[in-house]
């Protein structure tokens, strides 16, 4: 059956929303949104906080992480609203922050040092995790079941800080591949500002990639009960190996990594058309990254990746032959999943802008069936997503905490939902904290810059701390948005 009249009308309506004339564009302060999107990462820091930390209600936490195992795993980021450190999403967030600096750092202005600081906080921890013990990579701190049974501030947490690692006997090519990608991408972000640090990062990335490739296997199998169902690698580990090799080639310009891509690309998923990009599935992101090599350097072995990137882009553009109906809410937001959908919005938005940049640099376009989509079209589509997040949506609500006149006040986040240690110096125990989870009022601490899981498929949103699918923030939601906000902060007239 063909599409119904109703679905055609809906598609046309979405197309209209996505391609609004510039005169109707909302006048958002993208520079302010960029600054706040980076401040959010300071609220997610674990470890000894520096004097300039800009979330004044946060304090030191996790200062003994790894100590009982004689390893230093202090630092890094809590991934979302809990007090755990998961290596896979943390590494992906670091990769995306670094990619944001590498591709859009020139638009960041005064925020560039803060963006680099956010990258470094993640990269420093990943360096520790990758180099503390030869032949091993530490991939998690904390026991998910015990942590989730409590509602307590990170400064108070007394749940077990168990440490988990992968090695030759318990391989984890997915988490190791992503860690290698993060270190390689971070080396690019620091290439000019701190060459010695960049060199350390790149060397560690090469070592971790060699480990990931030599001892192949999924960490979901090796550490199943510890990492699943929280951050299982549902896509397997092939995508991370290709992703890591691609980043290592860009970071080092070492031809051996391009040889690896050309030799193993099809085996590692290069031939699949896929339509989402996340902490778990790197295939589309890899193809866009490799398309850069084809578009800018005419590396013929990468032509396949340009074709697949085009297919992905066409799936997002209404009216094209590959467009997948139902991918947008009535208000025009990309919609992939019911739980934490905003993570797919921010990654898609980033890829639209990165691909637009690569296309524009070589005078290329996207071919969608019989039509042509220009780099400017991709920018317009990305802008609609950013503007929706910042408040141009049916509810008139910003989904970035602390931005705009109306934003969510009840983020599913332990530290934000409870009195700070400055306001309430006494310890709040595991069970005592649940009164704050179930309280009806606004969070006492503003988690500035946090983008939450977001609305449902009909643009509906319940500002309820208990509705974690919509109200929980995450580093991997914010990280891609940093690059997108930088682009619009630097290219949009005030």
TrEMBL record:
The keyword Transmembrane helix does not apply. Gene3D superfamilies: 1.50.10.10. Belongs to the glycosyl hydrolase 9 (cellulase E) family. Keywords: Carbohydrate metabolism, Cellulose degradation, Glycosidase, Hydrolase, Polysaccharide degradation, Signal. The active site is at 412, 463, 472. GO terms for molecular function: cellulase activity. PANTHER family: ENDO-1,4-BETA-GLUCANASE (PTHR22298). GO terms for biological process: cellulose catabolic process. Its EC number is 3.2.1.4. Residues 1-27 form the signal peptide. It catalyses: Endohydrolysis of (1->4)-beta-D-glucosidic linkages in cellulose, lichenin and cereal beta-D-glucans. Residues 30-485 form the Glycoside hydrolase family domain. It comes from the Eukaryota. InterPro entries: 6-hairpin_glycosidase_sf, 6hp_glycosidase-like_sf, Glyco_hydro_9, Glyco_hydro_9_Asp/Glu_AS, Glyco_hydro_9_His_AS. This is Endoglucanase. The keyword Signal applies.
């Amino acid at each position: 059956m063909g599409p119904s009249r109703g679905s055609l009308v809906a598609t046309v309506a979405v197309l209209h929303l996505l391609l609004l004339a510039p005169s109707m564009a909302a006048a958002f302060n993208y520079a302010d949104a960029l600054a706040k999107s980076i401040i959010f990462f300071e609220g997610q820091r674990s470890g000894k906080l520096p004097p300039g930390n800009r979330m004044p209600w946060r304090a030191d936490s996790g200062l003994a992480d790894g100590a009982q195992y004689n390893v230093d795993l202090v630092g890094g980021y809590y991934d979302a609203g809990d007090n755990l450190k998961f290596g896979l999403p943390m590494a992906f967030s670091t990769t995306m922050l670094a990619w944001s600096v590498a591709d859009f750092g020139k638009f960041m202005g005064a925020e560039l040092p803060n963006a680099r600081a956010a990258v470094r906080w993640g990269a420093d921890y990943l360096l520790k995790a990758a180099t503390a013990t030869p032949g091993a990579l530490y991939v998690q701190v904390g026991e998910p079941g015990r942590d989730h049974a409590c509602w307590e501030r990170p400064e108070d947490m007394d749940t077990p800080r168990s440490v988990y690692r992968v090695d030759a006997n318990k391989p984890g090519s997915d988490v190791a591949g992503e860690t290698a990608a993060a270190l390689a991408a971070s080396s690019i972000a620091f290439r000019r500002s701190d060459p010695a640090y960049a060199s350390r990062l790149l060397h560690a990335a090469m070592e971790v990639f060699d480990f990931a490739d030599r001892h192949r296997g999924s960490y979901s199998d090796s550490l199943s009960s510890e990492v699943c169902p929280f951050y299982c690698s549902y896509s397997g580990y092939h995508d991370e190996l290709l992703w890591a090799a691609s980043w290592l080639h860009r970071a080092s310009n070492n031809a051996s990594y391009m040889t690896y891509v050309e030799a193993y690309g099809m085996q590692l998923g290069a031939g699949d058309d896929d339509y989402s990009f996340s902490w778990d599935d790197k295939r589309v992101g890899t193809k866009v990254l490799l398309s850069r090599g084809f578009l800018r350097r005419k590396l013929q072995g990468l032509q396949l990746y340009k074709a697949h990137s085009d297919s992905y882009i066409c799936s997002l553009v209404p009216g094209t032959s590959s467009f997948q109906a139902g991918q947008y809410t009535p208000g025009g937001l990309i919609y992939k999943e019911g739980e934490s959908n905003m993570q797919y919005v921010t990654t898609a938005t980033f890829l639209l802008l990165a691909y637009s940049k690569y296309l524009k640099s070589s005078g290329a376009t996207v071919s969608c069936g019989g039509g042509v989509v220009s780099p400017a079209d991709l920018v317009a589509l990305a802008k609609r997503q950013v503007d929706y997040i910042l408040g141009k949506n049916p509810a008139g609500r910003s989904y970035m905490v602390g931005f705009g006149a109306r934003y969510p006040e009840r983020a599913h986040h332990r530290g934000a939902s409870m009195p700070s240690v400055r306001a309430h110096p006494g310890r709040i125990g595991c069970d005592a904290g649940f009164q704050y989870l179930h309280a009806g009022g606004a969070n006492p601490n503003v988690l500035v810059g946090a983008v939450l899981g977001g609305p449902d498929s009909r643009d509906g949103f319940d500002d309820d701390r208990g509705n974690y699918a919509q109200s929980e923030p995450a580093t991997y939601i914010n990280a891609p948005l940093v690059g997108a906000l930088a682009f619009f902060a630097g290219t949009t007239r005030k």
